[in-house]
Amino acid sequence: MADNQDKHKSKYTADRLIPGAFEGETVTRRRFMTGTANVAGAIAAGAFTLPALAFALGPGFKSTPHRWETVGDVGMFTAINYTSVVITTTPGIGEVGKTTVYIRKFNPTIDTDPYDRDTPFIAITSRCAHVGCPVRWVDAAERFICPCHGGVYDLLGRRVSGPPVRPLDRFYTRVIGEQVQVGPRFSVNSLLRRFSPRDPGEPLDGIGQYLYPSRPTARKL
Amino acid sequence: MPRAPKLPSPPVPSALKAPPAQPGEDVAKGGPLEGAKRGGINVVDWIDERTSLSGTGRWLLFRKVPRGTNWFYTLGSATLFAFLSQAVTGVFLAMFYRPDAAGGAYESIRHITDTVFLGQFVRGMHLWGASVMVVLVFVHMGRTFLWGAYKYPRELNWLIGVVLLILTLVMALTGYLLPFDQRAYWATVVANNITATGPLIGPYLGDFLRGGPEFGATTLSRFYSIHMLLVPGLIAALIGAHLYLVTKLGTTAPPWLKADEPSTLSEAEV
């Protein structure tokens, strides 16, 4: 009896007296067929799931081309005050794809941070770093003020008070001929160090720059 | 006299054939009304014989409910009907809506509201019905919580309900963008920014929802697809699971009811 039980437990099908067993065979045909059916099903399901998933996730890995937009003559902008211009950040969706940018000439007496040396013009976004409301440059106060939740920024776009978590974002600028061009956006931390563009509400000081990593869709220039 | 060859009978189900006359029954009795009545019963019988649906129907609808069942027990059904209303009006709105970010979406909504017969009414039902559904989901959830109806063995149904709540809010969020006017656009931009402030995966999640680094034409079609195809399917499937568990486990008695005293006298009292 004990011998019979051992035969049932043996991993060789031949020992278990299964009809038609091969020498050294360990997988029964029933088990093999079950496995084959499962694998075939998995391949069939994966064949349409994986491409569809990649299709849906794809835009999250595609970088958008940089846009440079001419905003006006060099003489339009002064080194002491901001001039507002409207540029298109997202083409093809009408008015909502436009945004206001505040521009002034590079001023060595106030733009003392080493990161700003290479830029001929300072272009600051009107998108608040809190949740993205439009900020307004108030001349008398020399502050950017957000009407939604009371965010206040100084002349350089650094946070003075309110809920924003980082300074106002900026745009790259260049001069072609006598024309000023505004390029892609970038974000800065409180020391005005440059980072790839982040969405509003994402801090960049300390651990923030690691908690809110750069995205493949929008890299630094 | 030679017998005529018997033709094969046509492939009509036996239930649809006229029943043989009972001995003693007057075959001529019963006018066309009686025949129609019997025909209806026969059709139901024919389906039931092949599906056993009547048993499922009895199991689903003719349940024993605890004493003290009251109007608060209708909140789940109310939510279900709010969802059905959203589904039906949504299907018909989709016949006129165009997810075109370059002005077409807004124009198609205006067309529905201004020119289509009953368009304003159907759009209004969908718009206000969305708020009604969210409110009903929360009231239904509050009733379940306050009465302790989420306890053993109904925890899984509570979890399914929480997922349904989240999916309902996803519907509310994605539907809000579709008119593509300034309010819809900026409200969704803010909502998307809040999504992106989640640490580590937030920025990538925001990109996935937008279909890129900025809000654009892709975002609208994406939200439209999520709103009318992906999430409604999930909600319908989960409502099925939710109802199955309600039927399987039964409903709870209100918490103020005490257990019945045993009706027979115990031995000590005798």
Could you give a quick summary of the protein structure above?
The complex is a heterodimer of chains A (221) and B (270). With 221 residues, chain A is α+β, with helices and mostly antiparallel strands.
Can you put this structure into words, describing what you see?
The complex is a heterodimer of chains A (221) and B (270). In chain A, 19% of the residues lie in helices and 24% in strands. Chain A folds into two domains: 2-60; 69-211, 3-layer Sandwich (Rieske Iron-sulfur Protein), CATH 2.102.10. Chain A is elongated and about 95 Å long. The mean pLDDT of chain A is 89. Chain A contains three helices and eleven strands. With 221 residues, chain A is of the alpha+beta class. Chain B is an all-alpha fold. The longest helix of chain B has 33 residues, at 217-249. Chain B has helices at residues 32-51, 53-61, 75-94, 104-114, 119-146, 155-177, 182-196, 202-210, 217-249. In chain B, helix 3 packs antiparallel against helix 5, helix 6 (155-177) packs antiparallel against helix 9 (217-249) and helix 7 (182-196) runs antiparallel to helix 8 (202-210). Helix content of chain B is 62%, strand content 0%.
